[in-house]
Write a structure and sequence with these properties.
Elements lengths: L2 H23 L5 H23 L7 H26 L4 H9 L1 H12 L6 H19 L10 H21 L7 H22 L13 H29 L1 H5 L4 H13 L6 H17 L2 H13 L1
Helix pairs in contact: 1-9, 1-11, 2-8, 2-9, 3-7, 3-8, 4-6, 4-7, 5-7, 6-12, 8-9
């Protein structure tokens, strides 16, 4: 397995566990306000890390336009429509729509970047989605009827998938990790202004001054959002959007593991089967089988 794959695996573990952390926080704090503040802290953290790594610099006017363009899709549209959509749809519908993200990214990559994806890796993508389908539907009442909320969640995941394509086309002179910091700060400011227009209760942020909620928030903002997005966007530039996005299926795997460990929620048999399919889909879709097969072929020759 490549080093970048190990980093992606770590990021997916953090993002999966982040769902349990957010579930604890949204009990006391408005989700929209929490999202805006969490992304802002994450953005500042990434800029500080970039300064320590020696990659920090101020963008040119042209680069600012690109940052705002990507940030609009990756942060503003994605988080705004996700937050609004979750109010109007079921968790099952939302989970299935979000689980289609890797497939959507693959299709956009083929259409826009003219990427060539092997049949084996396509099978991996569909296998992973089948795992998402089984895991999400297990233990639920099934799909609910389509609603406007489903459309909003789809817009959310489409905006994110499109932003992955944009990041892969980023100018080589501008580090994607630095881009992440500027993008998160820009997006958080827009979301914060939007929350003011919606009259969200900003006073609830006072809860973060407690030891319990403060530590959970820092885990979510610094490790999951700052380090996670910084690393993931770097991976997109290194191995491309298709290979990176297949790992997103592991969010469901680690979300269930995190819920079982931190929230005491049980994992049922059908979910375990779904998790196996997700792991198989990631292994195949990431190109690991092709890499092993080609390596053995070289050794034999």
């Amino acid at each position: 397995m490549k080093k970048i794959h190990i980093l992606l695996l770590l990021v997916m573990m953090l993002w999966g566990f982040n769902l349990s952390a957010l579930k604890v926080l949204v009990v006391e704090i408005d989700p929209f306000v929490l999202t805006a503040f969490r992304i802002f802290i994450a953005g500042i953290t990434v800029l500080l890390i970039s300064k320590g790594m020696g990659i920090f610099r101020f963008p040119t006017r042209k680069e600012w336009r690109f940052i705002i363009y990507i940030g609009f899709f990756n942060v503003v549209l994605h988080h705004m429509f996700l937050a609004l959509g979750l109010y109007s749809t079921s968790g099952v519908n939302a989970g299935l729509i979000l689980g289609s993200g890797p497939l959507l990214t693959m299709m956009l990559s083929i259409l826009i970047l003219k990427d060539v994806v092997t049949r084996l890796r396509v099978c991996g993508f569909f296998l992973g989605f089948a795992g998402i389908l089984l895991t999400t539907l297990a233990g639920s009442d099934g799909l609910s009827t389509l609603s406007i909320g489903d459309g909003m969640v789809f817009i959310s995941i489409f905006a994110q998938a499109f932003s992955f394509i944009l990041i892969s086309k980023l100018n080589p002179t501008f580090d994607p990790r630095l881009l992440t910091g500027y993008m998160l700060v820009f997006g958080s400011v827009v979301l914060f202004v939007f929350s003011l227009f919606m009259n969200r209760p900003l006073v609830e942020l006072e809860m973060l001054f407690s030891w319990k909620f403060g530590s959970v928030f820092l885990f979510s903002a610094v490790l999951c959002t700052a380090f996670g997005h910084m690393t993931y966007n770097y991976a997109i530039k290194q191995v491309g959007p298709v290979e990176s996005t297949i790992f997103i299926n592991l969010n469901t795997f680690f979300a269930l593991v995190g819920a079982a460990i931190f929230l005491g929620e049980p994992i049922i048999k059908h979910q375990l089967i779904g998790l196996v399919l997700i792991l198989a889909g990631v292994f195949i879709g990431s190109g690991s089988i092709e890499y092993i097969r080609n390596k053995r072929k070289i050794i034999r020759e």
